[in-house]
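Let us walk through a complete example step by step. Step one is to write down the protein sequence. Step two is to encode the small molecule, pyridoxal-5'-phosphate, as a SMILES string so that its atoms and bonds are unambiguous. Step three, shown after the inputs, is the structure prediction itself.
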Amino acid sequence: MITENVKKLLAEVPQKNAFGEPVTVVAAVKTQSIEAINEAIAAGITEIGDNHVQEFRDKYSGICGVQKRHFIGRLQTNKIKYLLGKCDLYQSVDRLALAEELARKSEAKGVVSNVLLEINAGNEPSKGGFLFEEAELAYQSIKKLGALNVQGLMAMLPLSDDEELLRSIARKMRGLYDRLNAADGNFKYLSMGMSGDWKLCVECGSNMIRIGTTIFGRRVAVAGKRNA
Ligand SMILES: *Cc1c(COP(=O)(O)O)cnc(C)c1O
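Step three: the predicted structure of the complex.
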């Protein structure tokens, strides 16, 4: 099932987005077993993203043949130490204090950490991330921090059936990405799009999508754990 899902997905995702950039598929592996993740990798997944530090640690050595590991969940500063040097891309840098602490810890360990700034694109109080209005200032501060390499932006679109609304937010994200990138051109990734909305995100200029349900099926809730 997972094998078929991955093959179908990879065949469907265009090689390049509307801006001529390659599109990277990241499997969102929260709550999935090591066996399920390894099956997805054997079928062609090359990058995976975790939401929980505990899961990242527990499964770390059991996962075979993956090229890059991302962190895509809310990260508490006291847990950074478990990811340092092992996480290829911190996608969810959603506040200045986290960026500063990640920079400090990376420097102390002698590693450079690649990060994306998470933008609260739908302006939703329940979600983390910088607001559109705050993004430029946050970027200017964070890119000055040593030991961090800001590679782009990440966003989760709101849950909505209003495709026009979603497209307008996705286009606004691409506009912000281009604007911030114009100065020094160091960006690589606009990470935007999940199982339900990745097509429109790629059409609007996303070049990295994070896919869970389409690969693994619907998640079963784990007692005492956030399933989001
Ligand atoms: C779970 C998750 C995804 C994938 O969501 P699906 O709808 O299952 O594809 C993407 N990004 C983040 C941050 C997630 O937590």
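Step four is interpretation. The longest helix spans residues 163-184.
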